[in-house]
Specification:
This protein has 810 residues and is α+β, with helices and mostly antiparallel strands. The protein is 27% helix and 27% strand. The radius of gyration is 36 Å and the shape is flat.
């Protein structure tokens, strides 16, 4: 408004009737810093309140102000809240005629109520125009020692404000036995707080006692503490000496185990009996316990038994909870660290909001001091969304520190770590929870992805932003149908989209901040979880798009170089384990159903396929295949390649649709099932060297009704050494099976052959049964055809040179 004078303020109802008026002329010294030239531009105007809902419009010189219209009526509150020591204080005012002061509840970020109580009006309000109800509520004990905690404050169930607390807890347990616990507790932010403890033994509450003992040794370090000590005697335990005793200590109104508990206390007879029982189980035929694992377990138990026999007993902490924890209203907290990429972050948030359950799935957005100028404004638009928490780091903490801030705020809840450059699809969150809860030993669940190293689809090497034949949402829906409930064990999870069970966080702890800004921290976490017996798995039914590394940008290489040595030092087995997993394509089983479905979709859309069988060896065969493709082609069909990897896996690949599937010798049935999706009308076998016997057996029956050609580029069909050159360097010309057998005893078969278990006679019989199923057998020369005819007289062999000519031999 102009620097001189002031404007007229009018308040009207929905029908335009004047309800109140005044002028913007009140003094506001706090606005001087805005440089407006004057501070007499505020207004405060009393409006008539009724008991019915209404909507008011506020005008300045006839123009509606920002923030107008304003709703009034019952159940509409204004409020303020803050934390002072261990109290939540504030006021609340209802936009209606004065009624009863509302009841106030305080709920933490996990949806758990942590304070409650009534509010009250001032007996003599200082301001007749403003007489709110005030409240002063003590926070429950579980708010202590849990790190930063977001608090939502409600008046009669309506949100009136948000605040946070970070109440520390210094504590030490000095003695624990089935009959006595001794130690001390001090809360630095609330030194006057007198805590009570509850002690559970074998899952039953046995004592509630106050921390009421002076401790001069503790007070020397914390002068403001009063009576931090406790010394609680318990009734004698009735269990036999050879039975362990469980002990859990909690704050009296809390649900969190203190002192890294719960504890399992085993006197020497009980510990020895437990070791004997474990040793017996190690010798039993337990599923998944192979000879190596049985030997390791037996040796570990033997060494542990020596330690126990030299002591009176053992105390174990960080065991699964012996006292049931209260059910939480929240199913999961989705922690999203945010740094760069406004548009991709917005897309990620929108995908979460579209596919989560807002009543059970909390979204925690943490702005890690983003350098993007528009990031804060974009995120602010989601602050009012239901069950969304928006936080901003005072300093840039990096991925690890930011995730830990989120983990500390939602302790006691399953957590999904989600990068801000991802996109979720329908049903994915439910499926991850379903997989996590399918087995108690599953600790982490990672989604499959468009771009996430070993978790990528179509394969770890093929990571495209888009697949021309299918969209990612459609493929995600397909995965949910084809792979529902399926999972595969992995050596490590991937933090781009990883669900962690609450009990794993409780036992493993937070991410290790020694990994700095990021890379390696989730691998370390998963290794620590695995050491406690938890499985890390990938969910085959969940596919999540991922841009990968948008937050780190050019830092990725340096962070990898910095943290990889630390990871290898902590876990020397990690890199070899990952390399072997990659070599064997450990997640291949989760991709097969999608591969088959995409091939079938392409075929239904009009594509025709030709299956080309070869191997990965160098030499003349690859050139011959290229020449045949150039001169002859496949009649307009798309090439579907069946080959071998250097690691010996069978590889089925295609360029359109783009896929690369892997199988081992025990999964030949699944291989042909995937190929059935393409239903190739033409099969060309150029090289079968290196393929296992089950492929030969299955291929013979599968050729029925298909046009098929076998190109005899070499003599592997009857010579395991391929060349007919015997062990002493002579050309044998196709010796009989007995002579061939003696040759193999001297010189072995070709190094690539995996048919070593077959005698030469069985080898030739296997090929004979297969070659007779081909509609054409082609030899490059009359000489080669003669050798083939000598060994396989029932074959009708066509002679056709490798096409430097244009003759169509197909």
């Amino acid at each position: 408004m102009p620097d001189t004078g002031n404007c007229a303020i009018t308040v009207i109802d929905a029908e335009g009737r004047l309800l109140a008026k005044g002028r913007a002329s009140r003094h506001r010294p706090d606005l001087a810093a805005l440089g407006l030239g004057r501070t007499t531009l505020a207004y405060r105007i009393a409006i008539p309140l009724g008991t019915e809902a209404a909507r008011l419009r506020v005008l300045a010189n006839g123009e509606e102000l920002v923030g107008s219209p304003v709703d009034i009526g019952p159940g509409i509150y204004d409020g303020f809240c803050a934390v002072d020591s261990d109290m939540v204080t504030g006021w609340v005012s209802e936009r209606t005629k004065a009624g009863e002061p509302p009841f106030i509840t305080v709920v933490n970020g996990a949806g758990v109520e942590v304070a409650r109580g009534g509010s009250r009006f001032d007996e003599r309000p200082a301001d007749p125009l403003f007489a709110p109800a005030r409240f002063n509520l003590r926070l429950d004990s579980d708010c202590f020692g849990g790190g930063e905690m977001l608090l939502n404050v409600y008046a009669n169930g309506k949100l009136i404000g948000r605040t946070s607390c970070s109440l520390g807890l210094h504590a030490n347990l000095e003695t624990i036995s089935p009959e006595r616990v001794v130690g001390w507790i001090h809360a630095p932010e609330a030194p006057e707080r007198n805590f009570e403890l509850t002690v559970y033994r074998d899952g039953k509450l046995v004592e509630t006692a106050a921390c009421d003992r002076e401790r001069t040794d503790v007070q020397a370090h914390f002068p403001n503490c009063k009576t931090p000590g406790f010394d609680i005697s318990l009734d004698p335990v009735n269990t036999p000496a050879d039975v362990p005793v469980t002990m859990t200590i909690r704050l009296a109104d809390g649900t969190r185990d203190l002192f890294d508990g719960p504890y399992l206390l085993a006197r020497r007879p009980a510990a020895v009996a437990a070791i004997y029982k474990a040793a017996q189980l190690a010798n039993a035929d337990l599923p998944g316990l192979d000879a190596g694992a049985r030997a390791v377990l037996a040796e570990a138990l033997r060494n542990y038994l020596e330690k126990v026999r030299a002591s009176e007993g053992v105390t174990l902490s960080k065991q699964p909870s012996f006292v049931p924890e209260a059910a939480l209203p929240m199913r999961m907290a989705i922690i999203m660290p945010i740094y760069r990429g406004v548009d991709v972050t917005r897309a990620c948030i929108e995908s979460v909001l579209a596919h989560r359950n807002p009543e059970t799935d909390q979204l925690i957005l943490i702005n890690d001091r983003s350098p993007d100028a528009q990031m804060a404004d974009m995120l602010a638009a989601y602050d009012a969304a239901p069950n969304v928490i928006l936080l901003e780091n005072a300093d840039n903490l990096g991925f690890v520190g930011t995730v830990n801030r989120g983990l500390a705020m939602c302790s006691g809840t399953d957590v999904l770590l989600l990068n801000s450059d991802t996109v979720l699809h329908a049903g994915g969150l439910d499926e991850m929870v379903r997989v996590a809860n399918s087995r108690p030993e599953i600790g982490t669940v990672t989604a499959m992805s468009s771009n996430a190293t070993i978790f990528s689809y179509p394969s770890a090497e093929l990571r495209d932003a888009a697949l021309p034949d299918i969209s990612w949402p459609t493929l995600a829906a397909l995965a949910l149908i084809e792979n529902a409930g399926t999972c595969e064990d992995v050596p490590t999870g991937h933090g781009f989209c990883m669900l962690i069970k609450r009990e794993v966080i409780k036992r493993v702890g937070l991410l290790d901040e020694a990994f700095g800004r990021g890379y390696g921290e989730e691998n370390d976490f998963c290794a620590r979880a695995a050491a406690l017996g938890y499985r890390n798995v990938a969910a085959g039914g969940v596919l999540v798009e991922h841009k990968e590394s948008i937050s780190f940008g050019n830092e990725r290489a340096s962070l990898l170089a910095q943290n990889q040595p630390r990871l290898n030092a902590l876990y020397p087995e990690y890199t070899p384990l990952i390399m072997e997993f990659e070599k064997q394509d450990g997640l291949r089983r989760l991709r097969w159903a999608l591969d088959r479905a995409r091939l079938a979709r392409a075929r239904e859309a009009g594509a025709r396929f030709a299956l080309v069988i070869s191997n990965a060896l160098e030499g003349g065969t690859p050139k011959a295949i290229r020449d045949i493709e150039d001169k002859v082609g496949y009649g307009g069909a798309t090439r579907l390649s069946l080959s071998l990897t250097e690691g010996g896996l069978i590889e089925l690949s295609c360029k359109a649709p783009l896929l690369c599937a892997h199988f081992n010798a025990s999964k030949v049935e699944q291989l042909f099932n995937v190929m059935d999706g393409a239903a190739p009308g033409l099969v060309l076998a150029h090289q079968l060297l290196g393929f296992p016997a089950p492929v030969f057996t299955a291929l013979g029956g599968w050729l029925e009704g298909r046009r098929s050609l076998y190109w005899a580029h070499d003599f592997y069909s009857f010579c395991p050494r391929v060349t007919m050159i015997d062990a002493i360097g002579r050309f044998c010309g196709g010796a009989d099976a007995d002579t061939c057998g003696r040759c193999l005893e001297m010189g072995k078969a070709h190094e690539t052959s995996v048919l070593d278990e077959l005698t030469p006679a069985a080898h030739r019989a296997l090929f004979a049964g297969l070659l007779e199923r081909f509609t054409h057998v082609v030899a490059p020369s009359a000489n080669a055809a003669g050798y083939l005819a000598k060994m396989f007289p029932r074959l009708n062999i066509t002679v056709a040179p490798h096409p430097e000519t244009t003759q169509d031999v197909a």
